[in-house]
Amino acid sequence: MTHPAAVTACNLDLENLITDTNRSIATLAITTLLKTGAESSVDRLMKQIATFVSEISDEFKIVVVQAIRSLCQKFPKKHGILLNFLSGMLRDEGGLDYKASIADTIITVIEENPEAKENGLAHLCEFIEDCEHTSLAVRILHLLGQEGPRTANPARYIRFIYNRVLLENATVRAAAISAMARFGALCDDLLPNVLVLLSRCQMDADDEVRDRATYFKAILEQHEASLNSQYILNSLTVSISSLEKSLHAYTLNQAAQSKPFDMKTVPAAAIEEAKPTAATGGLTSKPDKPTTSSATRHDMFVEKLAAVPQLQQLNLGPLFRSSQPVELTESETEYTVAVIKHVFPGHIVLQFDCTNTLADQLLEKVRVDLELGEGWELVAEVLAPSLQYNVGGTIYCVVSTPEDLGECVTTIAANLKFTVKDCDPNTGEPDSDEGYDDEYQLEDIEVAVADYVQRVMKGNFGAAWEELGQENELEDTFSLPFKTLEEAVKNIVVYLGLQPCERSDKVPEGKSSHTLLLSGVFRGGHQVLVRTKLALSDGVAMQLTVRAEDSMVAEIMTTAVA
Description:
Layout: H1 4-8, H2 11-16, H3 23-36, H4 42-53, H5 58-74, H6 79-91, H7 96-112, H8 117-128, H9 134-147, H10 155-167, H11 170-186, H12 191-201, H13 207-220, H14 225-233, H15 240-252, H16 297-306, H17 309-312, E1 321-322, E2 326-327, E3 335-343, E4 347-356, E5 361-371, E6 377-382, E7 384-387, E8 393-400, E9 410-422, E10 436-441, E11 445-447, E12 453-455, H18 461-468, E13 473-480, H19 485-496, E14 499-500, E15 513-522, E16 526-536, E17 540-548, H20 551-561
Antiparallel strand pairs: 1-3, 2-3, 3-4, 4-8, 5-7, 5-9, 6-8, 9-10, 9-11, 12-15, 13-17, 14-15, 15-16, 16-17
Helix pairs in contact: 3-5, 4-6, 5-7, 6-7, 6-8, 7-8, 8-9, 8-10, 9-11, 10-11, 11-12, 11-13, 11-14, 12-13, 14-18
């Protein structure tokens, strides 16, 4: 919807189309009304479409559900009637895609509207009592484990979760065990009851269910918050495919096996960016098929860099992270260059992807000349032998980073240097063997704090914060030049490169203060947590508190904002 106000004048005529015998027209009419109607018309619309929904196919029902989702976001105060309507749709007959779209909508409402949490969770609890879809039941149980312990009466959800252990298949039973363990870890008054239930589950017929029950019971019986945080509340955050490859390499390396395997050498799992919902899709839009590729972007870069002999000989160690490409030239210029920063334990490999857009030139011996600051040193470079018209080439520069972390943030000036040979635009053949040296100035390369950080999600930030402790805690206050809290939050997240936790990157409407919670891993495997308290004044006042496993990491994250 791009101009809803223009359509509003037609709403009266659209309401008459709800009963049209052509179900496509009726569906389009109701979804348009849901997107353009006023808050006062929500109750009437829900009554009108109640009978209509039962007469259409699942494909059309999903379109209606998506329209209701946008309505929930537009009018959060109407969550009661909308959730009740969605709950009724959940009880109707329908396939997995249809039921999943309803559950997704209820979960979105719960996440974005705190007032709707308990009402939404109650509807989902009722649904899993008769849910025939294993994947959906597992997802709802996971949500109950995440949100249930933070409600006013967590005990009410235990019965629904334990019922799944008694009545469902092994996959759902295992998910129920994990959900119960979170209640035991977060609710001290429920812990004795949870331990009793877990002990009963140790007699389950399925191996996975028994193992989970035994595992969680053993941890909870220790009554240690740090163990609960590490093994129950905040799960393993490393990339599984990278962990597999690292373990395989470790078993093949006899020399490495003299020391214990170091989990800090395994990169953190990439955080998926939230994709826009399909609420704007039409009737003919189909849900995207899930991708099944197991190779992550990190794995692909590891293989690509390992295939360059000059880089392989340097033994740079495990790749920590790779940045997104940054353009160093305008897109319309004669040469286009983009840089990707690959961060290793003591080095950064700068990958320059270059293209020659001039048909009458052939570039040879193409390299990038860097102006490095104090403490930085060029270790090796891999030239591009030639750049033909519109054929990409890659240049690598390996630089060692300073030992002092405070000097690791820098700006590097760069020039593209090459030998030019004039050539025939049609054949690409050079006119002669002789050429002339030339250079092209590139944009400066910014090496920021975010380049040394991997995002890591913490399911329970409070537990992780307490587990890390105050040993390496630093605090400072700053005045930020932003006009809104939303703008401040967005810029802090981008600049520090950390992962927002517990949906703290969303600022509630009408608030003049907000707390942003951030988590990540600094190069070398050092965990870092940041809590920023923001308040609107002339700009935005910020109290920044950093906790890290390493004192130098805490210092660089604190001073980075200044």
